[in-house]
Amino acid sequence: MRYNERELLSLARQPAEKAAEVLMRVPKKGSVLKKRLVKLVVNFLFYFRTDEAEPIGALLLEHCRITKEEENVFSISFVEEPERKYCFECASEEQCQEWVEALKRASYEFMRRSLIFYRNEIQKMTGKDPLEQFGISGEARFQLAAPKH
């Protein structure tokens, strides 16, 4: 994926939807759990050394699977490389569940499906397309996929 490093750093400095110190293991051979500050901003999960302001990495939460592995542990893997897992160990099962839910809601696809659902609900209630006023009601990305025959 191509990205602008300055813009990514700027995004990492934005207020987080969720942030916490957790134990994290990256998918490298011999990798061990290390304490990291993880910060969810829009659809990026940034991770930092606990004593540094700049992130050491970022995961774009698209085309990924978020899985609760154990009581306090969840993982993130990507469709292209399902065997490569980023593992996160939380302080409690409750914290783990909160992270899993927040990460699943962070993807563009989840937000798009939510927009389509609420758009349809508003249209049913009011008889008007709420996106019409913005001139984007006909855009394909805001439409339900055509049924496959």
From TrEMBL:
SMART domains: PH
Coiled coil spans: none
Matching InterPro entries: Boi1/Boi2-like, PH-like_dom_sf, PH_domain
GO cellular component terms attached to this protein's record: cytosol; early endosome; recycling endosome; trans-Golgi network
Pfam families according to UniProt: PH
Transmembrane segments: none
Domain PH per the UniProt entry, residue ranges: 15-108
GO BP terms in the entry: endosome organization; receptor recycling; retrograde transport, endosome to Golgi
PANTHER family: PLECKSTRIN HOMOLOGY DOMAIN-CONTAINING FAMILY J MEMBER 1, SESQUIPEDALIAN
Protein name listed in UniProt: Pleckstrin homology domain-containing family J member 1
Organism: Ramphastos sulfuratus
